[in-house]
Amino acid sequence: MIARLLRRWWWMGVVVTALSGVGWAVFGSAAGLAVVPKNHSAFRTCVLTAYPKATFVAGDTWADENSPTAKRGGGNAMQVQSNTGRNNRAYIRFDLTKCVPTPSSAATVHKATLRLNLATAPPGSRIYNLNRVTGPCPEAATTCWTESNLTWNNKPTVAASATATLALSATSTLNRFYDFDVTTDVAAMAAATASNYGWQLADSAEGNATSVIVTFKAKDLASASGAPQLVIVYSP
């Protein structure tokens, strides 16, 4: 039995389709044929760099347990510390509406990565937890979680489970970016099933007997190099 073969050729602007073994052919004008692409959505990549001139970040700061009313925003670094009575936690939030186009509630977030540049490494091996912030502050004032107002006493609440973790040590490379996978959080923010209050970064084992400090570069640098980034891949 002769297998059926599909053949097409063009001749004088006419398409001839013949099926071998069938014994018939279909003729049609090339101008009358339409090509229908497979259904797909274009992927977009949005890179938000936390730098004052770009204003892509709503704020980055840190809270100081030893100075519970101190406001630490405006510096060129965010500090995270584990020490009894002297713990420090960092906070960062990006403005997703700066993406063009802004991820809509119907958008699919394929990947979202928070990137922080390491300024100083801890003296030993540590694990750091990144938790999504769930409320602006204990008193629920929307103006509380800002770079200029956040303190240890009014620090916001966070999700019980960490979104991502990061292992660092004394040998960790300085002046390079370390990534946190925040895809689930950004997808929820885009879909409006979670408010965009940003994230908290803290030592996973706070209250260490001796001080263990790590610092990451903040948006108040002399240039955008090393400033925090949020990279989002989404569609449509």
Walk me through the structure.
The chain is mostly beta strands. The chain has two domains: 1-34; 44-235, no CATH class. The chain is 3% helix and 39% strand. It has one helix and 14 strands. It has one helix at 183-190, and strands spanning 6-11, 14-19, 24-29, 44-49, 57-64, 77-82, 88-94, 108-120, 126-132, 164-168, 177-181, 199-203, 212-217, 229-235. The strands form three sheets. Strands 4, 6, 8, 11, 13 and 14 form a six-stranded antiparallel β-sheet that branches. Strands 5-7-12-9-10 form a five-stranded antiparallel β-sheet, with no helix packed on it. Strand 2 (14-19) and strand 3 form a beta hairpin. The two termini are 49 Å apart.
Count of individual domains:
2
Mean pLDDT: 84
Shape summary? globular
Uncertain parts: 1-40
Helix content: under 10%
Q: What's the Cα radius of gyration?
A: 27 Å
H and E order: EEEEEEEEEEEHEEE
- Biggest beta sheet attributes: 6 strands, antiparallel
Number of extended strands: 14
Fraction in beta strands: 35-45%
Count of helical segments? 1
Summarize the topology.
Elements: E1 6-11, E2 14-19, E3 24-29, E4 44-49, E5 57-64, E6 77-82, E7 88-94, E8 108-120, E9 126-132, E10 164-168, E11 177-181, H1 183-190, E12 199-203, E13 212-217, E14 229-235
Antiparallel strand pairs: 1-2, 2-3, 4-14, 5-7, 6-13, 7-12, 8-11, 8-13, 8-14, 9-10, 9-12
Notable features of this structure?
single chain, about 240 residues, five-stranded antiparallel beta sheet, 14 strands
In short:
The chain is mainly beta. Mean pLDDT is 84; it is low at 1-40. The strands form three sheets. Strands 4, 6, 8, 11, 13 and 14 form a six-stranded antiparallel sheet that branches. A five-stranded antiparallel sheet has the order 5-7-12-9-10, with no helix packed on it. Strands 1-2-3 form a three-stranded antiparallel sheet, with no helix packed on it.
